[in-house]
Amino acid sequence: MLIFLLSTLALVGAQHNHFDEHYNFGHLHQPIEQTIVFDCGSNPNRAIQNPKFTFNRNDLELPGTFIIQDFEIEITKPIPRPLYGRVEAWRTIWLLGGAGSTIQIGCFGLTSSSTVGLDSVGTCNYGDLCGILDLNTPINDTTGQPTCFNEAMNLGIPEDQCTCEGIIAPKIYSIPNWNNEVDLTDLEPGLLTFLAEGDYELKLIAEDDQGNEEACIGVLVSVKEWEDPNATGGWLFGKRR
Q1: Average of per-residue pLDDT across 157-168
Q2: What are the UniProt keywords, alphabetically (predicted)?
Q3: What's the helix, strand, coil split of the chain in %, to 5?
């Protein structure tokens, strides 16, 4: 589950408690003024709950960077295997007069990815997240044995247990004052196509093999184009002109 969370950190922000499982995705009534992440889960027995993030800005400027200042998430029970993940995504643009035009975004393939198994963005199914985590587990340069991500070890996960089973619950995993910079200055073209300027709603869902909800994380974020004062032109459907 860690790789699922880390792969989406670029699109999350500070939690507001009045957003919950009743939030109606795909029906924005006004522009997003600050980034919000909230628990949209309805299963009281879900394994992953109460995501909390703080960032140094209220929108996502691309290409650009941002800083994850604090991170916290609650694991209420051992994470089941397999754990199937999917994302549902909507984009809203605001027309003259303030009317919003919303579409559900399709699944865009990526030609390259730093994470094996995460080769698409948008409204996509990602299969077994635990399997993706296994494929991306680092190898210790000295011992040649599987080790763990530094972020995971900072959360108290043992070095030799960097799997779904290694996340021992119940526990609140937290990194206060993390101040980790995420660099998005050299984005893959397929990701830029997905992240055209606009307001985004994302629903990140994880389920066990019986279809039981184990996590639901809602994200609202405004994506802005970084404007180079020395450049001409801009984005056209998510690509540089």
Answers
A1: 75
A2: Signal
A3: 10, 40, 50
